[in-house]
Amino acid sequence: MQTERGRNVSGIDECLLEALRLPGARGAAVVDWVSGLALGTAGDAPGGDHEAAACETAELARMVAEYRSFSPLHAAGTPSAVTVPAEQHAGQTPAVEDIIATNSDSYHVLRFVTGALDGTLFLHVWLDRDEGNLALARIRLAEIAGRLVL
Amino acid sequence: MLHRLAAERATGAFTRAGGTLFLVDGQIVHAESPAATGLEVLLTRGSVLSQARWDAALSRWGREGSVAHNLVARGHVPLGLLELCQRTALYDAAFFVLAPSGRLGRFRREVRDWLGAGVGVAPAAVESETARRLALLDRIWPDARIDVLPPASAVGAGRPPTVTDRQLRILQLADGTRTATDIARELGRPAFHTLVELRRLAAGGLVVPAGSGRMEEHVAEAVREGEQSAAVPPADGFAKPDVALLRRLMDALEAL
């Protein structure tokens, strides 16, 4: 879709289809981890049910987003010698960029989306392990997440 | 009634005590509720879109129902962001419209929404999502009074160790006067998300519904009086918000 100014704009569907173009991609979704609702889905879902998968991935995303163990030690831009207490991360959501889960035949990458809805959204891509390239997926998903809200 | 409207592929506005669902060809394209945060707040509070731009878009394109298209086409809001906020706001409002309240809905044919967001959702999908959300809230903490009565912080000085940053912001606003909807709007967050966090805080004993106790008898009486005076619906089809709120409180008390 093009705007009057001639820029390409990416909606939810376009972004999910782009995620499906990753080598080995089986399925993709954008999920709200507070409610567990998939706001958009594409391709196949683990277990065959996008809604059930969204509820489960949302639980994982919520825990990682909220537990202090996963917060960075230093706020971005501060000298590494200075440790910032977790309280000061309020407003700089989310602290975690992505989560990866690996099993014998798949990779799952969950990429948090910043700049929308207070950091409560993430992109989930499910990749075949043999065909999938994890480094590429992380980089591409970061780009897609950025394009979704900019 | 909603199932019949979906099967008939009806177009119009379906109104219950909790708000209104806008249908086009039997699909829900937009939803509004006095208890929900609203798309306007989600877009403007996230500092993507200024309030002035929103107001201008609404006044210029609201009547022809093309606000969404024009905001995106003119580059004021990224398409993805609009879609994400629009879908979030739709489910947020639909939750309050479809939550059980014992009252029937009214349908006004051919009434259109001002947003013009386009893609709709099947009523059955929104109903099952609403049921899932109700079960989710109940699992966290079964007392629904916190949805309706203003929450009051039950925490002493200093920060409790198990609270997230998001919950802390809610606790700071829980003064026994603001309702969950007030808090959600002030934070620019969907109402349902705030309900989830309040149930979690209540489960941890960190908030309590303000004024509970003698409130139950007064509420039951107020609902009866409110229903009598609301027996003739106002001309615009919207139920009075205070009666709706009291109705939800009654249901919450009965469910306890």
Helix content of chain B: 40-55%
Low-confidence stretches of chain A: 1-7, 80-92
Q: What's the pLDDT, averaged over the residues of chain A?
A: 86
Question: How much of the polypeptide of chain A forms β-strand, as a percent range?
Answer: 15-25%
Protein name (chain B): Transcriptional regulator
Summarize the structure.
Chain A has 150 residues and is α+β, with helices and mostly antiparallel strands.
Mind explaining what this structure looks like?
The complex is a heterodimer of chains A (150) and B (256). Chain A is of the alpha+beta class and 150 residues long. Chain A has helices at residues 12-20, 50-66, 134-149, and strands at residues 25-32, 37-43, 98-102, 106-113, 121-128. Chain A has a five-stranded antiparallel β-sheet with strand order 2-1-5-4-3, sandwiched between helices. Chain A is globular. Chain B has 256 residues and is α+β, with helices and mostly antiparallel strands. Chain B folds into three domains: 2-131, no CATH class; 141-209, no CATH class; 215-255. Chain B contains twelve helices and six strands. Chain B has a four-stranded antiparallel β-sheet. Residues 231-241 of chain B have low confidence and may be disordered. The chains are: A alpha+beta (150), B alpha+beta (256). Chains A and B meet through helix 1, strand 2 and helix 3 of A and helix 5, helix 6, helix 8 and helix 10 of B.
Main features:
heterodimer, A: 150 residues, alpha+beta, Beta-Lactamase, five-stranded antiparallel beta sheet, 3 helices, 28% helix, 24% strand, globular, disordered N terminus, B: 256 residues, four-stranded antiparallel beta sheet, two-stranded antiparallel ribbon, 6 strands, 11% strand
Element layout with pairings:
The complex is a heterodimer of chains A (150) and B (256).
Chain A: H1 12-20, E1 25-32, E2 37-43, H2 50-66, E3 98-102, E4 106-113, E5 121-128, H3 134-149
Antiparallel strand pairs in A: 1-2, 1-5, 3-4, 4-5
Helix pairs in contact in A: 1-3
Chain B: H1 2-7, E1 12-16, E2 19-24, E3 27-32, H2 39-45, H3 51-61, H4 67-73, H5 79-98, E4 106-109, H6 123-140, H7 145-148, E5 151-153, H8 165-173, H9 180-187, H10 191-203, E6 207-209, H11 215-229, H12 241-255
Antiparallel strand pairs in B: 1-2, 1-4, 2-3, 5-6
Helix pairs in contact in B: 5-6, 6-10, 8-10, 9-10, 11-12
Protein name (chain B): Transcriptional regulator
